[in-house]
Amino acid sequence: MRVRYRVRGIFLLLLLAASGGAESVELTLDQAIEIAVDRSSRSEIIEGDLEVAEQNYFAERINFYLPEISVNGSLPAYNVAESFRFFGGGDEKNLIKTTDLDFNTNIKLNQSLITGGNLTVTGNIWNREAEYPLSGADVTEKSSQGVFDFELEQPLLKPSEQKYELKNKKDDLELARLTHVEDLAALKNEVTEAYFGVLQTEVKKQVTRAKLEAATLTLGIDSAKFDDGIISEEARLESTSAKLDAELEQIDIDNENLTKSRELAIVLDLDPSEAFAVVIPDPGGHLGDETRRAVVNRWEASVGVQKGLYEYSKAQRQADYAASGHGLTGNLKATYSLGRGDVEVDGLEQTNNTDSWGVSLNFSYPIWDGGSSGAAVKAARLTAKKSQLEYERARRSARAEMVDLVNRLDISFRKLNILTQQIEVTKNKRKIALFRLEDGQISRRDFLETEVAYLEAQDKYLDELKNYLIDKIELQSRYSG
For 228, which DSSP code? Predict the structure, then answer.
């Protein structure tokens, strides 16, 4: 069902700058919202906040599931060193000169484990050629070797830090998505408020012009009566005061209209030198019975409840993690090294294969830290309790708020129907008054009274239409999907 707005006689022109008779471009409310959501700087900021959360979660997830791999290498290094020392089993110190040519490279793989541990694998390849004196002769030694080092570190009696950070980033992403819905709704509301601000001040400008014209006519009549001695000077001064009040009201409304025009230009990032024509929007279709029931019954999936749930979940996790580090903790470390290579000394080749391993287990327990750790855990618990209370409060109020919002839409829709009929009535009255004016049956001042009533009926309609459309946007923002 759609409200049919029969009064389209007033096509409201919005000039965002004093551009004289510049040709204007029609700008509907839907177009204004589209510009704000798709192309304004505000929308870029809103989308940027969501993208930051997405990239942070993506980076954390990649680090959790995939290893970090790095490669290091060196160019051949040539070293010559002389020293006065014992060498080669001799019983006297001699001046010894050694020459080394080294080259090495390594590949390092670092992988987080779902248990909270960390596995590091390092592969080293190196070549070395050295010359040194031995038993009165220079010896040349060539060696090459590849070594794989495996190192496992596993925290004990403590939750996985990697899983903790990944879950936090996941909650941050979900919160950012829900906030994104709210921010877009807030932007749409701001555009709607600014758009209707221009529409209503344009109508009020016409109202004040009609009132000023009526006050001017009244003053003219009262001045003539005063000259003829029919009324007192006090009565004429009252008419003069009424005209001055109408002029002041006209100035205020003109200024308010310019302010609303600038607000609309700012929120849409439009060029203030361009001229745009704004038109009264259609209220669109109303909620059906099935849709209203579905909206109310899905209150647990509303944005407010979901945000409260994610915030509570994150705060509880942070409290548990903080508490886990305050007490007995341990660390298991295991290493294994596998080396394979060859050594050649003056043409004699030998193998150089090595295997080594080690295991260590360490525990720690804090004895005294002045109570700082306990205070930190207590603060985290209190934060989690606060988040829980806010979540429960959101759950208790969500359904009632949804029912209230649906009821407001129903009431506003019915009022729009009544106001539409009022506009039609005042329009017909104005038409009759115009006919009587042209026929000389009534004065211009009497006609202006019907003109003002017609315009004020439109202003009431616009005010209710604004509330109806804003409530529609609010309803859409209550659900993320």
Answer: T
Cα–Cα distance measured from residue 105 to residue 144, given in angstroms and rounded to the nearest whole number = 12
- C-alpha distances (whole Å) from 179 to each of 59, 184, 404 are 21, 9, 22
Query: What's this model's pTM, rounded to 2 decimal places?
Result: 0.79
Domain that holds residue 218: 13-61+163-319+375-477
**Strand pairing partners for 406?**
none
Q: Which of 1, 156, 7 shows the shortest CA–CA distance to 458?
A: 7
pLDDT, tens digit, 9 for 90 and up, residues 88-120: 556 666 666 677 777 778 888 888 888 888 899
Residue 327 token pair? 């007490």
Nearest to 412 by CA among 358, 367, 472, 357: 472
Concatenate the DSSP letters of all residues of 35-71 into one string. Answer: HHHHHSHHHHHHHHHHHHHHHHHHHHHHHHHS-EEEE
3-state secondary structure of 8: coil
Each residue's pLDDT tens digit, 228-249: 889 899 999 999 999 999 999 9
Return the H-helix or E-strand segment holding 200. helix 161-227
pLDDT (tens digit, 9 = 90+) per residue, 194-226?
999 999 999 999 999 999 999 999 999 999 988
- CATH code for position 422: 1.20.1600.10
C-beta of residue 120 within 8 angstroms of C-beta of residue 106: no
